[in-house]
Every structure is written in structure tokens, then in C-alpha cells.
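Take a record:
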Amino acid sequence: MSRSLVVKVTAGADAPERCAQAFTVAATALASGVDVSLWLTGESSWFALPGRAAEFDLPHSAPLSDLLISLLSAGRVTLCTQCAARREITENDVLPGVRIAGAAVFVEEILLDNAQALVY
């Protein structure tokens, strides 16, 4: 049975250490061969937009844009439906590979895949 991890990140530039931790854990798990799904919710929703991750800077942390690129290339990145709507973000606005989905898909990923879930 393959291992899978769902990481839900709620923090963005408002809580940079928590945000960076979520991306770092997700990217590290992915590099370790774990199937990873990263969910962008709350203030992290902005990172679904082109260029936003490159603006994020936290000393002694891997560049968020690099972590996001690796997650988009080998994992799954999902933007919360309600969070996108509240910020007026549409499918036409997001980076290639980012999907917009809601709570039912989040629950499905955890329960059907028997995944471990982390919330930051």
C-alpha cells in the first residue's frame, strides 16, 4: 500500500513560519516518495496565483516558489473553492496544475486514500 499525505495550509504571509513549514513538510514528503496533496486555504490561497509564491520571503527557509514548483510537478495542489470565491480567484487566474475543489474532495482524499492529514 502506498503512503499518502494531505497537507492543508491556512497561513500565508500573515503567519510566514507556519506557512513555510506546511510547504516544507509537503515537499519533503514528496521527495521521500510519498503521494502528496497540498490544499491552499485562507491566506495561503494567494499562492495559487502566478508570481505570489516568489514574493514570499522567510530567512533560513527554502524559497516557497521552488517548493510549489516541485509540488505542482509531482504532487497535487488544490485551492479551496470557498477561499477562491471569497478572493474572486477563478480557474483562469491560477497557476497551471492548480485545481479548485471543495470540502467533499478534501474528505475523499483523506478517507478513500487512507491518507494522513496535517493542518497548518
Summary: The domain at 4-119 is CATH 3.40.1260.10 (Hypothetical Protein Ychn; Chain: A,). Residues 16-31 form the longest helix (16 residues). The longest strand covers residues 4-9. Residues 82 and 102 are 7 Å apart (CA to CA).
